[in-house]
Amino acid sequence: MAKEIVKTTNGHASPFEQIRRTNDAGMEFWSSRDFAEVLGYGDYRNFEGVIEKAKLACFNSGHRIEDHFVDVTEMIEIGKGGQRSVKSILMSRYACYLAIQNADPRKEIVAQGQTYFAIQTRRQELEDERIEEERRLLLREEMRRHNLQLADAAKGAGVIEPIDYAIFQNHGYMGLYGGLKQEDIHRRKGLKKSQKILDHMGSTELAANLFRATQTEEKLRRDEVKGKAAANRTHHEVGAKVRQTIQELGGTMPEELPAAESIKKIETKQHKQLNMAGTPAKKKGK
Asked: Where are the domains of the chain?
């Protein structure tokens, strides 16, 4: 029998909040056993089919199943103070969203759950988008600053003319992007020549390029590299090392990452929000 819906402090009926758990790191999750009980699945075995459908939907959506469904063993009470171990699954909010979409729609609690997790999932998406935008703004500004420092270090190594610096930059890109030059990356990501690559990178790609830039600058200065050829070789080697690290960690190669919305739009939106926040409210007329 489903658990009784109890009003939460904010006035909304949410049995799903009541069974939500958090770990020591503050990450939220739900037990599939609790979830099945709230949804009115008297026999947990009937809910296992829902879980399998949710896992398939997760896989088809391009997400790693193990990131959202974690097999565990839980202890349950069996009366007279006894306990026994049972198989269970710890589910993320996204996993719960997929499960609720595949549960028995005839159950009233399922309909309530679909609304709840649809709203909460969207809220989480918006929050994730906001965090990603903040990361991109921060990393892009760091790239601007460190590219100036990299240019100065390259100049000290003998890369003086603009054409030589463009070649120097291409060597770094070729190391990090598996041989692709700047124009190749433009084509790969569907960008126009007028669009700056760095303005269309997500935070993960920006971070990789920031590491490339900072480490190249440091190596040029530390090793007192001299000559354009040696500077180009150094930049390529550092880029290749960063690429190797990404590969060893199982990350996505930078050329495979999609182009992001222009950071100029994010900067414009942020400026508008700051201006609106700083504008005093108009007084109502008498």
From this structure: 15-104, 130-262
